[in-house]
Each structure stands twice: as structure tokens, then as C-alpha cells.
Design brief:
It contains 15 helices and 17 strands. The chain is of the alpha/beta class. It is elongated, with a radius of gyration of 28 Å. It comes from Desulfomarina profundi. InterPro entries: CHLI-like (IPR045006), MCM_dom (IPR001208), Mg_chelat-rel (IPR004482), Mg_chelatse_chII-like_cat_dom (IPR000523). Keywords: ATP-binding, Nucleotide-binding.
């Protein structure tokens, strides 16, 4: 018997509805999944089989074929466990439901071996995609409730925690209340950054520059010796930025949901992101990428601040990759079979020391300027020995003193 259930996957930062077709026919007991599944989707057969048996249902000893349509799109993640299990139970008539409802709901969730429903990444873009396609209800794991509450009205989000709960709900035996959506007003009322711009004492000229940068969306380069407060100023800059709008909260939360990260204590990104990657970061880590492209630091800093501490320590090719995001507010990652565009609109903050020793122009200059000059000479004449460099250094110093 054939069953059709609507699932969903994420491509880039957008959800994509997938039709999960399950056919249970006579033949040797084989479980085949087709439709360009990745390793996590192929391994679902073991999770689904164990979950169905441990929940007290009978798993069919027949030939089971699962097709994920459209077949030319690569399917990723563990969110197809639940729709596959529901499709098998319906195909074997363990679950009896009105087939006219198939086009009205979508199912997303990962199964544990005991039949529990675990959270998945990218629930918010899946909900938005289902809403755009006219889906009236979507079943999601209860652990994704907080993220799902920020979704706009127009679709009922049903939280579930176990496979039997889903079966009973679809059979009409129990009623589960949908998650009440949040309005955009209270989301930014109690935003906490942990630090505040008022913590800065003195530094009037720098604070004035940061206020201008916040009002005009400008980028900032902080140059000064160690301990002058560059990092402290950068961390407090997001606290004077305007509160995020509902559209910005949705867009930023989608990125963090897909990346499987949290912007803070809450799953909702109501505070401006502040990302400070280490200077050893790779190209893919900063811009995004991988075999299946994922957002990088520039996208995780979307609608917030990207802080590059010790700017000269970053590799040249990594810094050159920032040109497109800074100019266009987006970053495009091209692979053999796809080209994905991630949003990357942020305020770029960079900090650096004025010289290799870090104290040029300060009271410590007399003790350290000769060290800086000697270090620069070593870079200028790499072929000379240390004795030759010392001779050149003393010769230049004698001329300077005269």
C-alpha cells in the first residue's frame, strides 16, 4: 500500500517541502530510501524500525521503498524520521486517517530508538516555507517550541514529544493545542547583553565615533596599544544599536537555526549578534561553505557586529573575502551542483596594535621603539645574519644620533 506524507528540508536559509512517499509491498524484507538522501537520511531506517517496535507497533517484514520527491534535490538531516515512520504506519493500515488531509499538514522530527521525538535544526524556515505553500498545520518536536513561537500567524504549529502521540493525533483520538505565536512587541522589551555602553569611562572621542557609526551603519577600525579598551568598546557597541524588528529577528533566528547554534540563552535571536572569530579562522569558517554549504561567521553576524581582533594576524586571503559581504550585504557560495546566497549585513569592527610591540606612540616608546625597528629590519633583510643586522642597526643609530 502507498502512503504520502509531506516533510520539509532546508536549502540555504530557506525551507523546501518534500513529499515522502512510502510503499510497502510483498517481497523480501528490504528497506530502501531513494531521492538523493544523505547519510543521516539513509540511517533513518534503523531509527524508524526500532522506534516503531519499541512503541508497540508492528514493523512490516516486507519490501519498503521510501521516495523523497523531488528526486533531484539532495535531502539532508534527520528531520525525515518522523514522516517516514508515519508513512509506514499508514501504509500498513496501523494508522487510519483521512487521505484528504495529507496536503494540509507537514511533519518534521527526529526519532530516538524508544519512539521519542527529538529537535531538528532549521525548524523556523521550515514553518515559513510550509505557510507559504498553503499548509495549515505542521507537526514539530516539542523541543523546538520556543523557536516555533516566533513564526507569523497563518499556520498551526503542533508540538509533539513521542511517536504514539503523533499517531493518536493524526487518527483523531487526541487533540493537541497549537503553539500560541508571539507578537513582535514583547520580543525586544527584556533584551540583555550582559554589558552596557554606560560602562565606558572617559574615551569621549571614541564614544562619539561609535555613536556616529551606530547611527549611520559605518564600519570601525580601532587602533591602539594593548589595554587601551579596543575589545571592551567593541563588545559594548551592539548595546547602542536600535532594537531588532520582527523581520530582523526572524531572519537572524533562521540563520542560527540552520547552523544549529544559539545566539544566547534563548533560541530566539532578539539581541544583536556579536561574533568575534579567532584570527586563525579558515575561509569556509568566515564566509561559509563545506560540502553542504553552511553559514559562516559573516552570516552569523547578520544584523549585528563582526569583530576582528588583531586584524594584521588574519590571513590575507581571508580578509580579501570580506569585500563582497561588506559591499553587498550578502555572500554567495558556489558548488558543483548548487549556488547558495546567505545574508551578511553587519557592522565590521576591527582592532589592531600600532606596531609589532604594540606601544608605538605611548610612554613605553623609548624602551620599545628600537625593538620594533630591529624587527622591521629583519623582515627587510631576511638574507642577512643576525650579526649583520646588528651592524646595520648600530650604523643607522650612529647616523641618527649625529
Amino acid at each position: 500500500m502507498l502512503s504520502k506524507i509531506t516533510g520539509c528540508t532546508v536549502i540555504g536559509i530557506h525551507g523546501w517541502l518534500i513529499e515522502v512517499e512510502v510503499d510497502v509491498a510483498l517481497g523480501l524484507p528490504v528497506f530502501a530510501t531513494v531521492g538523493l538522501p544523505d547519510s543521516a537520511v539513509r540511517e533513518s531506517r534503523d531509527r524508524v524500525k526500532a522506534a516503531i517496535k519499541n512503541c508497540g507497533y508492528e514493523f512490516p517484514s516486507r519490501k519498503i521503498t521510501v521516495n523523497l520527491a523531488p528526486a533531484d534535490i539532495k535531502k539532508e538531516g534527520s528531520g525525515f524520521d518522523l514522516p517516514i515512520a508515519v508513512g509506514i504506519l499508514e501504509a500498513t493500515e496501523t494508522l487510519v486517517m483521512d487521505r484528504s488531509r495529507h496536503k494540509t499538514f507537514c511533519i518534521v522530527g527526529e526519532l530516538s530508538l524508544d519512539g521519542g521525538v527529538r529537535k531538528v535544526n532549521g525548524v523556523l524556515p521550515m514553518i515559513l516555507a510550509a505557510r507559504e505553500q498553503g499548509i495549515s498545520k505542521i507537526i514539530v518536536p516539542v523541543e523546538n517550541m520556543e523557536e516555533a513561537r516566533v513564526s507569523p500567524p497563518g499556520i498551526d504549529v503542533i508540538p509533539v514529544s513521542t511517536l504514539p502521540e503523533v499517531v493518536e493525533y493524526l487518527a483523531g483520538l487526541v487533540d493537541i493545542s497549537p503553539i500560541p505565536p508571539l507578537s513582535g512587541t514583547p520580543l525586544t522589551e527584556n533584551v540583555e547583553y550582559g554589558v552596557d555602553f554606560s560602562d565606558i569611562k572617559g574615551q569621549k572621542h571614541v564614544k562619539r565615533a561609535l555613536e556616529i557609526a551606530a547611527s549611520g551603519g559605518h564600519n570601525v577600525l580601532l587602533k591602539g596599544p594593548p589595554g587601551s579598551g579596543k575589545t571592551m568598546l567593541a563588545k559594548r557597541f551592539p548595546t547602542i544599536l536600535p532594537d531588532m524588528s520582527l523581520d530582523e529577528i526572524l531572519e537572524t533566528t533562521k540563520i542560527y537555526s540552520i547552523a544549529g547554534k544559539k545566539a544566547g540563552e534563548s533560541l530566539l535571536c532578539t539581541a544583536r549578534p556579536f561574533r568575534a572569530p579567532h584570527h586563525s579562522i579558515s575561509d569556509a569558517g568566515l564566509i561559509g561553505g563545506g560540502t553542504s554549504p553552511r553559514p559562516g561567521e559573516v552570516s552569523l553576524a547578520h544584523n549585528g557586529v563582526l569583530f576582528l581582533d588583531e586584524l594584521p594576524e588574519f590571513k590575507k586571503n581571508v580578509l580579501e573575502l570580506l569585500r563582497q559581504p561588506v559591499e553587498e550585504g550578502t555572500v554567495t557560495i558556489v558548488r558543483a551542483k548548487m549556488a547558495l546566497t546567505f545574508p551578511a549585513r553587519f557592522s565590521l569592527f576591527a582592532a589592531m596594535n600600532p606596531c609589532p610591540c604594540g606601544f608605538y606612540g605611548t610612554a613605553k616608546i623609548a624602551a620599545t621603539v628600537q625593538v620594533c625597528r630591529f624587527t622591521n629590519m629583519k623582515a627587510e633583510f631576511p638574507a642577512l645574519s643576525w650579526i649583520g643586522l646588528i651592524f646595520i642597526w648600530k650604523f643607522r643609530r650612529s647616523i641618527t644620533m649625529k
